[in-house]
Specification:
The chain is of the alpha+beta class. It has helices spanning 17-35, 198-231, 234-248, 256-275, 284-290, 305-323, 330-347, and strands at residues 53-59, 62-68, 72-74, 79-88, 91-94, 105-118, 122-133, 137-141, 145-150, 153-161, 165-170. A 5-stranded antiparallel beta sheet has the order 1-2-4-7-6. Strands 3-11-8 form a 3-stranded mixed beta sheet, with no helix packed on it. Strands 5-9-10 form a 3-stranded antiparallel beta sheet, with no helix packed on it. Helix 3 (234-248) runs antiparallel to helix 4, helix 3 runs antiparallel to helix 7 (330-347) and helix 4 runs antiparallel to helix 6.
Length: 352
Amino acid sequence: MKRLSSRPRLQVSWRQRGHSLRVLLAGVAAACLLVSCEDTPSPEGTPEPAAGLEKTVTRGPVSATITVDKKGLSIAERLSLTLQLRAHEDYEVELPAFGEKLEQFGIVDYRTAEPKLVGENEVENGRTYVLEPFLSGEYKIPPMTVRFWKKTDAETVHELETEELTITVASLLPEDKEGLQIADIAGPVAIPRESKVWLWGVGGGSLLLTILVVFLVTHLRGRRREEAEAAIPAHELAFSALERLVADDLIEAGQVELFYVRLSAVLRRYIECRFGLHAPERTTEEFLSELGGAACFGADRPLRPGHQGLLRDFLTHCDLVKFAKHGPTTAEIQQAFDTCKAFIIETAETDD
């Protein structure tokens, strides 16, 4: 808990400095007694800051270095991935296709570096992605293939593969949601009144206590609101978000990219809330393929094998619009919206 501080100033005269010193000490003691508390532990499931990963592979005159800024993050955080290539100036090097091997992530942003001379007769270029995970779990980024050839012999093409990277994404949901309990607000502490000098301490302490109570009440209301939202079925929350998206009429306003950002966010939040995913031992691709069996979540409305391809196509289309400046037609926009809505309907909870 962040400690709050709001102390009143004391007006003292030189003739009363001894008496006022006792007043000041008493006030500080009372304020500390009223507001002292233990530090609140970090929320369960939030990972500690983790160092990044860097792996380099060299073949002949070409080296490829793949780097991520962190090897563990929460589902609310973003990951920066950089592929840097260095080759002798007599060779041409080809970057992997846009988004290759990154289908498990949403591409928030990217930047392709211009080739530049480094070292002795070497050229360096690369590409950086800003990624966000869709689900919690263990992500394995497969090796990326880099093609290169000598400028005087374009027919002979060589390949170099980067090393596999493993990234762990933690859910924001606690492991035991049923065990959540909200502690009662602590009552005020009685302070014995031995003399009027305590008025300064009581006044300062009361002010601090008031601020503390307001903070706790606001915090608890927010927690109760979150629990109330958690009691609402995930598909109803998603449909409400889709209704707000339609009401904002972003397409008519020409804000197509913003429309796709919000549309893909609706589906990502629905997946997290609907399935309460905790799968640290499996990659997202493996987890989605296993959802085809009803044994994963019971027989209510499990994901079918076809949903994995539908989800991948939908997210790829959204990334093309958001980051590759693809201009979708009216039919494509309607199809993307209908695909999102159909996915939610087909996987929604039922009362059966």
